[in-house]
Amino acid sequence: MVFSVTMLPPALVGLIYGDGAVGAFLIGFLVTLVTGFLLWLPVRRYVRELHLRDGFIVVVMFWSVLALFGSLPFILVDELSMSFTEALFESMSGLTTTGATVIEGLDVLPKALLFYRQELQWLGGMGIIVLAVAILPMFGIGGMQLYRAETPGPIKDNKLTPRITETAKALWYIYLGLTVACAMSYWAFGMTAFDAISHSFSTVAIGGFSTHDASIGYFNSAAIEGVAIIFMLLAGVNFALHFVAVRSMRVTAYWADAEFRAYISVLFIVAVITCTYLYFNHTFDSVGGVLHHGLFQVVSIGTTTGFTTADYHTWPGFLPALLLLLSFVGGCAGSTGGGMKVIRVLLLIKQGSREILRLIHPNAEIPVKVGGVSLSPRVIGSVWGFFAFYVLSFCFMSLLLAATGLDLVSAFSAVAACLNNLGPGLGEVGSNYASVSPVGKAILCFAMLLGRLEIFTLLVLLTPAFWRA
What mean pLDDT, rounded, does the chain reach? Predict the structure, then answer.
């Protein structure tokens, strides 16, 4: 019922711009509202405290059910003529902040629909932050256990309590503040008010949807791209860390964090490699072109945003593969970014290094430390378990997608882009996913949901033990 209200702002935008999509959003609003009301009515007086088992179901249903109802406007807008699978793909891509699209010709679509796509990503981004910082740590699978001492309230709880609202409120203020600052910056550097608000939604959510087919490249402005880089970097940082920095009023809190240092270092190293390779291959006419296109694409793909200023999938040599692999690292834990998260990759490297040292010193006790703190074997084990299922899921879905008739490069990159919530892939899916079969789109919808919900949150519901216990 609450989600139905999100279809009213696009309807208002449609009225302002006088396009014909208003009716589709009003119908979508009514269908969603009435369905929600009918589901709520029989249980309106039933009260029971939510526990962790309920939390798993609520979290999965949040993205799956809302994506289902979020697809209604895409089906109802006459200019699109989308099938149910295509509409669900677009809605799921928005709410999971993936940014993969099946729509071509964005520049001529109704403003209401364009605004709705951006709004879906923004709402999904806020949901992800609350999920990653306030809820998943209680499940023991969010990768946020390292921040228990620094984040507010409910991370210390063993059951879902009203104190989650305290955390959500603090995170909401930071998220909203970044969005407003981003929109004002875009507008100051030449975007229209509509484009500035729309792109601020997808930038802070690390979504990548745009109101133009050419994405950020449409504006052909180094200043706008600079704004995008800054806010993509900020949105890729752990929001719990933003909270600590704001509360303590110390910028140094960022550099004191091991994950943040690794995050910046990885992006810097890949940016240097990318720009150097582009320069020596004469991909662009000037050093300035190399720097701004190379840096922008590294930050956009490294944070799993998916904005583009150039067709990176046509770049020479190994660069497209390097950038796609970078998306597996993704943003920091507790950010709107996708991928495996920097902290997990950092722990995998540290654990691997420890195993090499153990070969040399078999009897030595060598702890794995992050930021000077030794980690428990349980945390290390959960990270390895996550990595194993991430890789297995990627391989399995890639083979399934290839079985639908897609070539191997397109299939593997499409699953990588959707599992990492990146958006643009390589080959046939470099620009959009319109050519993927309906079965393939369904597989990719599952990949988006799996990646967004940190693998275990969804897989645990597929185990018989969860329902028996």
Answer: 88
